[in-house]
Amino acid sequence: MKDKKSSTADRRNFLQSGMFGAAGLGLAVSTSSSVVMAESDKATIKREVTNEVDVLVVGGGTAGVIAAIQAGRAGAKTLLVERNFQLGGATTTGGVAFPGLFDAWGKQVIAGIGWELVKESVELDGGKFPNFAKVPRSHWMNQVHVNQFVYALLAEEKCREAEVELAYYEFPEAVVKTDAGWQVDCIGFGTRRQVNCKQIIDCTGGAEVVGLLGFERLREEERQPGSYLFQLGGSHNPASKQLHRLYVHGADSTNSRTATLANLTGRKSILAKVRKDKKRLMHLQPETGFRESYRIKGETLITVQDYTSGKLFDDAVSHAFYPVDLHTKTGVRPKPLKRGIVPSIPLGALVPKGSRNLIVAGRCVSSDRLANSGLRVQASCMGMGQAAAAAATLAVQGNTTPSEVPLAQIHGLLKKHGAIIPGKA
Questions:
Q1: Closest by Cα among 69, 176, 160 to 116
Q2: How many Cβ atoms from other residues are within 10 Å of residue 177's Cβ?
Q3: Please, which residues have CB within 8 angstroms of residue 274's CB and are 6 or more apart in sequence?
Q4: Tens digit of pLDDT for each residue in 82-100?
Q5: Long-range residue pairs from 216-223, CB within 8 A, at least 24 positions apart, any chain
Q6: 62-73 and 112-124 are packed helices; what angle lies between their axes, rounded to 10 degrees?
Q7: Domain ranges within the chain, ordered by starting residue
Q8: Are 417 and 229 in contact (CB under 8 A)?
Q9: Helix, strand or coil for residue 331?
């Protein structure tokens, strides 16, 4: 497979020409910005769909969209399945549109495709960047404010340029091992999709594919509260400041029922606040933002001691940087890392223990609860997504599994696509 460079196609032409095979679905975009489905093409839409791909990315959130772009750019035929209606996860659907932290102690420590997407989002929106050369008084001062709507559009554009196929409103219901890799049966309304792939990257947040396959996952009885973001009173000006928020205690993203309950609880509380404060509701995010669910038990488990000491793992593939940030019923008191400490993330923490042809990225990284409270933030998850995709793509090329790909090859591919390698100045 040959490396694909990002296209410089004009964004306006991209939006006017439609998305991901729109012509094949009978979609057309007119000058009035309406979308019309031609009657003659409606019959061509079939319920049963089959994909033959190298890499399947499940979950198009913070880690998943970066993983898909990296896999596509590196030459892997890639499909990204997302249960929601857009890419970006916490940054877009969750509304936490101030990702971080990309810097530590006066220098940038996480870059690559995630930073590229954030940077272009800020530039297109006419926004401003924090000064990474300056160590802030508090960590939040160096989080980068992005326009969540621009971010979602650019994420789709970059997937298109990398020839990544998108499947929204779908999710796996069964995963079966095959001689060539995996058969993954996905379901969406009006669609049943069979995906035959060589590698799976699970970016679901709660390692749900890992769970379907029966590999061990970790979770405490108590979970950090979720946050529901909204805006009362004044207008919502994207990328200018953080939204209002309220805690949704007990928020659980384990399944559709618990996620429904979290959203109903959050919306009920917001409505009560509107009535009490007698202010207009100017903005409401689509759903609760979840902080914590299942984590994998990986070949390596990152402990809070590993994290707070800045341990450089032998198989480190990315950095992380954020305070230990455990939210409770009474709030959160972040515990900053000691000066000079920059944690690393090993490849082994992305590989479910005993698995082959399977890797994860995002907040489900193998870690204890306190370490995970710092690892789960967006910049770190972007770095994990890119690293996981590099390993998975190279595994396809070498007809092996991610954990057996030579580390030098992973580092080489990551560096080629702009990532910063721990311990490699």
A1: 69
A2: 12
A3: 232, 280, 281
A4: 999 999 999 999 999 999 9
A5: 216/296, 216/297, 216/352, 216/353, 217/294, 217/295, 217/296, 217/297, 217/364, 218/294, 218/295, 218/296, 218/297, 218/366, 219/293, 219/294, 219/295, 220/369, 223/250, 223/251, 223/252, 223/291, 223/292, 223/293
A6: 110
A7: 1-45, 46-220+296-416, 226-284
A8: no
A9: strand
Cβ proximity of 160 and 19 under 8 Å: yes
- Residue at token pair 């012509």: 23
In angstroms, what is the C-alpha Rg of the chain?
21
Q: What residues have CB less than 8 Å from 236, skipping those under 6 apart?
A: 243, 282, 283
Secondary structure of residue 25 in the 3-state scheme: helix
CA 410/CA 352 separation, integer angstroms? 18
Q: Are 193 and 51 in contact (CB under 8 A)?
A: yes
The domain defined by 46-220+296-416 carries CATH number 3.50.50.60: yes
User: Would you give the distance in Å from CA 211 to the centre of its chain?
Assistant: 18
Q: Please give the model's pTM, rounded to 2 decimal places.
A: 0.91
- Residue 103: beta bridge partners? 108
Question: Which tens digit of pLDDT belongs to each residue from 186-231?
Answer: 999 999 999 999 999 999 999 999 999 999 999 998 899 999 999 9
